[in-house]
Please model this.
Amino acid sequence: MSDLLRVSDFHVKFATIDGPVHVLRGVDLAIGVQERVAVVGESGSGKSVTARAILGLLPASKTQVSGSIIFQGAELTRLSERKYRALRGRAISMIFQDPTAALSPVFPVRSQLRRIVARDGGRLGEAAIEEKMRQALVDVSIADPERVLDSYSFQLSGGLNQRVMIAASLMNRPSLLIADEPGTALDATVQEQSLRVMERLSEAHGTAILFISHNLGVVRRFAHRVYVMYAGRIVEAASTAEIFTNPRHPYTRLLLASVPRLGSTDLPLGIEGSIPDYHEEPAGCPFIPRCPAAIALCTAPVVMRSISESHSVACVSESAQE
Model:
């Protein structure tokens, strides 16, 4: 499968009052055409920063980046802001965590969708624009599109706002959709419905998806491949089946062990400790303070190594080699 997007040795540093903060440390990931790839990890792992970096949404005056982001053969780190704006909403779209906050409360849905249609660059007549917006809402299973088009975001439920966001992000048939914790603010039933809509439309339009989540149950059903991120690094990458049946990194294993099991009366304990301070530069593996399998070799720089053609891990402990 050819790569639609490839991020290579990507680093991000933020300037803060307390000094530079190194939040992404050599991130490597790839997404194939029409592939669904998930990035998982605890809050603060660097997942959302990765997504915003791909879209060029990090504050330029306070951010230092290095490495490569290649999308459809073009190096995104060299794009001007004008060219990046032409890319967003067309070739790449994004669904943000909170759909209600992402939609403007001062413009009706119709006005906001109309601006997205305009980004496609085509010269559609009024009737064609109205039909495109109406059909986009029908495609996400909204039964009364006219009412929704005339509504403001605060007049709609969280589930409807989520569907409007999905419709908006897929309206111009992007090659890549970045979904950053979609449905986090929604109940489980509405979240599942939204994911099914997104899955169906991505297959119908041939859109690849970078799916950012901490919900491993959703990831298992939705993604083809999974990247596990910890403290700004990718620590394991494999097919979804391999991640769930043969996890190699101790962090991945603890993440999976933290998921409640149906039929079990025992609550998972979670992972002790917290993600390390990004102001500090760890000498070796940043997971050492929380890792039950840490050994002396973990204090040396750790790099990703291949276990198989489709599975790699950044760990030198015996548990990663089993």
